[in-house]
């Protein structure tokens, strides 16, 4: 295909890739879409594509960040962590009915919470709900998340440009990282997933007991579980239906041992958590638990999140990203976890993915009502696999696989 140029062409191309490949919506299925207000055009394109693909119904859950702002400003702070049970019950019902799901990422108004107490903002994690992690782990839905360019997001990424030029450039980059500029985007993604799957198999064959990250400000050891598997974004539902979680995706990841994480790690990219921009982040672990969170700005938001429950201060994911992906080569942050986490290796505080370990290790995997990724990889950060005998094998150096 030729690179889509007009707004209508871009919306249609991204929607078709999400519906027909990433989420793999099936005839007769219900498609649930989650999006902030301000993303109506892409939501409508997704609905149009889904109905053309045979969807039975498209159900959209809208989220308004302005109402979240009002809650943080005026509600009793002790109530900010409360989530109406029917919101989580809806997510569980989507799993019970084997629905498809598509979530739209990218901020609409990235500065909306800047003047609020980040500790209070961190207590209200909506639109994220804990039930989402359960449905993902139980593999009952075919799902994906895709980026949705907006004027506010474009201005955040490219403040030096006028609004129209910034949005145009953001769309060009989203089309590029989603491989919409390939003759056959689906074939291009299949080839990339094949490569990542082969690297994951080679890494697992090493049977590492732990990974070590070493770089400027970083000396971190992450223990692994005996059955930790290295998985790429090509997921399968519990009945075998294949879908691609996250579009784009350049990572392989696994579930670590939440009791065996030690050392200090410095984030290599900004993080947006609970609507708060966190820059210059540094986190210290002892015996698996976070003991210190510092940052140049926004640290209180992550501190608040890490205190949400017993598992929120332990790791639920460790992921590796090489230098062959398209996102990191653009050499600027997107201030959006979906994109930034696929530009660099990362770890996540909170809930683990149970399907990344065998059933005998399920009880050892971390449990939490939250999941927050932050980026710790760069060309200056080396990754080593450590065997049970202490032998070290270089895995990633200067962004290149060494295995």
- End-to-end separation in angstroms reads 34 Å
Outline, from the CA principal axes? globular
Strand order of the largest sheet: 14-13-10-6-5-18-19-20
Low-pLDDT stretches: none
Work out the count of structural domains.
2
Number of helices: 12
What share of the residues lie within helices? 25-40%
Strand content: 25-35%
Structural class: alpha+beta
What's the number of extended β-strand segments?
20
**Global mean pLDDT:** 94
Which value, in Å, is the CA radius of gyration?
Answer: 20 Å
Major pleated sheet: 8 strands, antiparallel
Description:
With 403 residues, the chain is an alpha+beta fold. The protein has 2 domains: 7-177, Thermophilic metalloprotease-like; 185-232 and 249-401, no CATH class. Helices cover 31% and strands 27% of the residues. It is built from 12 helices and 20 strands. It has helices at 7-22, 40-52, 65-74, 85-96, 118-121, 130-138, 151-157, 163-177, 185-205, 299-306, 326-329, 337-340; strands at 30-36, 57-63, 100-105, 142-147, 210-215, 218-224, 234-236, 242-244, 251-254, 256-266, 271-273, 276-278, 282-286, 289-294, 315-321, 346-350, 371-375, 382-386, 392-397, 400-401. The strands form 5 sheets. The chain has an 8-stranded antiparallel sheet with strand order 14-13-10-6-5-18-19-20. A 4-stranded parallel sheet has the order 2-1-3-4. A 4-stranded antiparallel sheet has the order 9-15-16-17. Strand 5 (210-215) and strand 6 form a beta hairpin. Helix 1 packs across helix 2 (40-52). The longest helix has 21 residues, at 185-205. The chain is globular. The two termini are 34 Å apart.
